Amino acid sequence: MAEQLLIGHPPNAQAPAVERIDSQDIAVAVDGVSMIYRVRSSSEYLRSKGVTARQVKKILGAGWAEIPALEEISFTVKQGESVGVIGTNGSGKSTLMKLLTGKIRPTTGEVYATSTPIMLGVNAALVKQISGRENIRLGCLAMGLSPAQVKEKFEMIVEISGLRNSLDMPLKSYSSGMQSRLQFAIATAVDPDILLIDEALNTGDAQFRARTKKRLDEVRAQAGCVFLVSHSLGTIKQMCDRVIWIEQGRLLADGEPEWVCEQYEEYTDHKSNDRKRSAQIVYDRTRLKLNPVTVSFDRGTRPKRAS
């Protein structure tokens, strides 16, 4: 029999007590992941890391402080899904992305993936002294494509980036938006099974967004999955069929984009206008609707750990 993932729901949830999902459909499984950073407890250092004054007062004097970045996060992502990841600054989104790529290991829990995720971020390395054309060639070779494959993929990369008229200009003459478009086009040339995108789609016009959506749809159609981290809810709703909301290091919501984004907008509106009680009501109300999952493997070999 094929290996199964057992996804358990709490007794008071509307979903069945145990839902069986064939693990062959799963691209990523995050199992009870927590991440705690250990930092020096000087007031200036902690505040530079985004720790609140109240937290500083609580932990000062200990020499070292343990700052929780993520707490007991569990979810699975099927092949072919496009998942948006949202949350306010400091909520734990970047930590989650690093865990998914295997750049860091969780303090507790495990991350499993069917293949090594490819991370596309606005800070991805490009060589500013050479042309866009040469950056395409070098970027593809660095990702493991052969010269023949680079030649085969070249036209697609140029088309997605929309930078045909700027290919022979040095990269240092490109705007940050142009560089992000080129980075995205290069990163998707390898047909990744798991692609992580960090804010890169917030740049560019409507035509670029349409081209990127088409390319992401192609990745998903090839049984890949996509994670998109963005502060642009419009981009999230356009590109994703599911949204995960991370807040205060916890998984607050996981569901349909329109509903999750609506709750998030209400929450951030209250927060930005210092309506703390109203923001907390939205937080608590949203969390009550979350069906926590428990990941377990009842047969066969687990998918490999992210590394």
Automatic annotation (TrEMBL):
MF terms (GO), sorted A to Z: ABC-type transporter activity; ATP binding; ATP hydrolysis activity
Taken from the UniProt entry, a GO cellular component term is: membrane
Q: Where is the ABC transporter domain?
A: 46-273
Keyword ATP-binding part of the UniProt annotation: yes
Q: Which UniProt keywords apply?
A: ATP-binding, Nucleotide-binding, Transport
A Pfam family name for this chain? ABC_tran
In the record, the note on similarity to other proteins reads: Belongs to the ABC transporter superfamily.
Q: What is this protein called?
A: Teichoic acid ABC transporter ATP-binding protein
